[in-house]
């Protein structure tokens, strides 16, 4: 075995799915030999890790060739921000024609996401840093997409504002996360609302359009006033009036995870500030507890037990337990302790600990479990960038996932069983703390 073969063999040993990585690596080296590239890139261990983790990015690398492979040997950025990501994305969107602009934007977004993945696999970004970088990429992509639409339609877009909800609001997006959005406009009678609706429809259609380059993002608009039956773009005065009314607790929960992302004139910020007293009102804690438990029970019963699978988000002791616990503490105390008002779950746990609402053991267990469950989610979604949150209960299906989570026993059954034992202990601790703080669903 020559040096190059030893290097490749060692690289494959680090891959989550070694069989998949080996097949792709054999094909890649054949391409390198044919094109005269040598053993490329130099950091071939990172290439093997991508091959073993993601079929989506494996396809991208073969499709883009040297243009994609060059990222493995480039220096890593010190930080990923919306501002640092915008130039390349927006430059890609300055072609002739709507379709050409969005095709270029999809390619640039894919390459930026690959760079973030490489930085994560190289240990340059921890989980929270990776999720923040992915959120910045989503925000920059949305802004560039809106610029394309405004340029193509000829209708100015500065009267519109966009609120992000959920993981995007909390800067905790994962690979495969969708965009939860609410569109606002001033409600001024002089504004052409019909033209704005057409712009938003065009924007949403292009962002979610399936193409050979994939889609930019799935879009979820169900959290706007009146959900799917509501208007696509909401007048800001109506948005404020709607949320100032006596809304169900689950809507208050959702609004704790809200942040302006496009807001040239401050419309989204002002609207959100106007409804803060209603969101964090002086809630009756017993009623708040009862309604949150009722909603948590309903979600778990309806969506938390898929046949033959563990549901890491909605299932017992899953991510939603931690989210709902944070929502409960924020809504119960946020009127008197405004420092608790944050759209991120990690930051909410930090603030609740500092406020004495969680003890050190509760905080450590919940924070650690949140990261652990979000890592599992990342491993699952990386395969094909699908928004999934469940995995098989069958140990025979779990070897690659177990390796991705650090369980690397050479015996596949033992690695999978160790992973499952660890998972079950994690969700058991989460449910114990949820019950202690909020109650038993």
What's the mean pLDDT score?
Answer: 92
How is the biggest beta sheet arranged?
A: 5 strands, mixed
- Silhouette: globular
Element string (H = helix, E = strand): HHHHHHHHEHEHEEHHEHHEHHHEHH
**Low-confidence runs of at least 5 consecutive residues:** none
Write structural notes for this entry.
It is built from 19 helices and seven strands. The protein is of the alpha/beta class. The chain has three domains: 70 residues, no CATH class; 198 residues, Beta Polymerase, domain 2; 153 residues, Nucleotidyltransferases  domain 2 (Four Helix Bundle (Hemerythrin (Met), subunit A)). The strands form two sheets. Strands 1, 2, 3, 4 and 5 form a five-stranded mixed sheet that branches. The protein has a two-stranded antiparallel sheet with strand order 6-7. The longest helix has 27 residues. The radius of gyration is 23 Å and the shape is globular. The model has no long low-confidence stretch (mean pLDDT 92).
